[in-house]
Structure formats: structure tokens, C-alpha cells
Queue: 2 jobs
Job 1
Amino acid sequence: MGYWGTLIAVQSNGRNLAALTDRSAELRVDGSARRGDGWQVYSLPDNLVVGDTDGALPRLVKESDAPVVAAYVADSDYGQLAGLSPVHGQWETWLDANTARRFERDYLVMKGMSKADADRQAQQMIAGFGLPPAEAAKRATQWAREAGYAVPAGPIRQVLASRRPPGASALLRLPWKRYVFAEEMFFALLDNLGLPRVVND
């Protein structure tokens, strides 16, 4: 079974932030999650990207006085991403919209809907959330500048436009379009936003 939950990158500088402690968020200390410049990655089971009724992410921005980026990951297959910052506000996009569409379509078919209707409804779900990769990448560069990093939009767009092909066909794709888990897309996005990794001793 894959990972379900929200991953949050925040420049906490080691502080305990109430928006995280109130929800018993866990600090991620695995290799890909370890970041420098005071950035830390937290994990919690709730979906804070969609249905964040108490405004935990905006609270984090206010508490840290810095940009925050979060992704709700569904069974390691796809994710819903949100970036927030004090000046430029909030933007959202999918991590692997194609896989999200297929999962929603197949679920609706399993519930008895025709494949054509299910595909149409799944497409509407995708269109109803966030920005397409190119537009989201532009907003992401603004997010990065506000965080203190000057980064190009191209690599970010490549991450956001990547998808997980089934089976051995994954090996035929270019490296930046190849991944196994949606969490890997999130950590690749952090790399391209400029958040430095901490090298293991």
C-alpha cells in the first residue's frame, strides 16, 4: 500500500509551529526530505490541500513568514499540490493529472457509470482543480523568488507535466518524465524550487 497524506515543506528553522503541532504533524527525516536553509518537510494524514477547513496552510505562511508548499498524495499514485506565499498568494496544480483522471474514471466505472460518462466526469474533475503545468510553473518561480531562490520555469514544468506510464514502458521515458511514486515528484519539485538537500553524513 502506498502513502496517503499531506507532505508540507515549510521554512520553520527548527521552530515548533502551532499549525503543525495542533495536527500532530510528523517531521520527515528520510534522505529526500532533509533540506537546508531552515526548511523542513512534515507529514500528516489529513488532506490540507483540499478541504482545509481551519486554514492550516495559510496559518503556516503567517507563522513562518515564508512561503509554504504542500501536496496531498493519494496512495503514492498522484497528488494535489498547493503553493502559498505572503506576497503572491496561493496557486494549485496536479501531480500527475493523467493518473488522477484514470483512477477517477475507473472508480466511476466500477460504481456503474458508463466509460464515456465516467471519462467525461473525470476530465471535469481534473479541469476543476488548479492550473495546467505551464501556468503553475510560472507561479512556482514567483514562489521560489519569494523564498529567496532564482530558478527557471522549465524544469518545474517538466516535473508537473510528468506522468507514470505502466510497466516496462516507464523505462523508455526520459529521466525527468520517469518516476515510481508521487512523493518522488514532490521532492523533485522541491529540488527545482531551489530548496537545498542535506547530504547524508
Job 2
Amino acid sequence: MTSVSKRLLFGTAGVPLSTPASTTLAALDHVKNLGLDCLEVEFVKGVKMGNDTAGLIGKKAAALGIRLSVHAPYYINLNSAEQGTRLASQEHLVSSARLARILGARSLVFHGGYYGHDSPEMTYQSIKAALRNIVSILRSEQNPVTLRPETMGKKTQFGSLDEILALCREVDGLLPCFDFSHLHARERSENSYRHFHHVLRKIEKKLGEKAISDMHIHIAGILYGERGEIKHLDLQKSDFNFDAWLQALRDVGAAGMVICESPNLETDALMLKDLYGSYRMKS
């Protein structure tokens, strides 16, 4: 298991587009050659990786100094009206966390689920109970992987900033995955340095300094409407104020992983890393 970073590390959600062979093993060499720092291993379409492959990837990532995280399947819904789906969702998270451990990944990102016909409070309680059970299973196995519920971009999805902060306060073994593009699409809030700085200080106040010094962040440009997120865009084709956002992260001393989910993946990841580096030189 890798140690906590003392700065922001930049990488891609899955295999970079320019990787010669579209495998995670090949991606590690390419991430290193590009000058990026980390990679999120995507189980978004299912947990299909074998333990032996995960072990090889983990050893190679450690040798190259590439940090890994894992994203659990998109179809997880811990608040489904169907009991079978709820139980299967818990199993998908547990199996993802077991592979994350073999990979040497410290964090497992996931989407909590949908409100459906339930109130936000009922949804919150349902997801909280499920996660307490999952964390209990993982800790009984001495699995140290941190579960990271993600802030979500659609208003039909569980995952407002306040919901995620409350969940991480009440359930041991959780830290957030902050998708700032999702928050921008969902909340339509002020897109400025002042706002980003306020959000980061709110995070620190609610969860403590660790939530700033050990962040896991998703970022992309985003197209949105009245119901929130529509689709991801390249950062420079969107209205997201990534310049002010990066400056706010620098000024609060944020550290951890920044995973780029823009359609152009490594292009935006490298742009952000270069921009962040220029800010650090000035500070």
C-alpha cells in the first residue's frame, strides 16, 4: 500500500488514449513516459480482472512510482428498490476493494446510487447502512482500502457535497471523491476562486485536515442543464474555471490524486499538471 502524497499527483481515468496497447500494464509505462503520476484502474463495466493480473500491475506500478486507485462498476446502486440489486451492489464493492488491495491502490471510488422514489433522507440512511456493512466486511479481512463515495453531477443521483461530507463523517473507513465538475453541474454555483476556496475550507471544517492532505479528485470539462450533468467535455471547451480551481487547491495545501476524465484524458491531465507546477514555483 503506497503512502500519502505531499502534493497533487495528476493522471488519467483508465488507459491514456495514446497508449500503444490498450491494457493497464502497457498504460503504466506510457503514464510514466508522459510524465504523469497516477492512474485510476477502471472497473466501471464490471470486475473482470484476475488476481494474478492485479498482482503484476501492482508490482509494476510500484516499481515505476505510479500511484493507483480503482473505480468500482457504474451500475452499483445501494438504494435500489430491488433487494437483489442492493445486495449485488455490496458484493461488487467488496470484490472491487479486494482487487484494489492486490493492486496496491489506497482508494476505491464508487457511485452510491439513485434516490428513485425515496426521499433524500431515506436514501442517505439506506446507503449509510450498506456502507457500514461493507466496511465491516473489509476490516474483518484486514483490508485497508479507503472507500470513496463520489460527488455526483445529476440531480437524480445521491451525492451532493453535503451528503458525501455527512456520510464520511458518520461511517468510519470512508473519505470523499470530490468531482468538482459534477458539483459545478449539479449546484450551478459561483465558478470562482472565492467559491472553490470556500468549498475546500468547508471540507476541512467538516472532515478535518486529512480530507485536504489526502484528496481524491475527479475533473473534466462538463456540459450541463437544468437536471445537472449531460456529458464530459475537454476542459478548454467548457466553462469550468480550472485556473481558479487549481489556485485554490494550491493555496489550501491540497495533496492527493487528481484524475482527469475529459474526453482527451492525458492532454488535459498534462495541461493541469503543468499549470499546477507553474503555481507551485510562484508560491
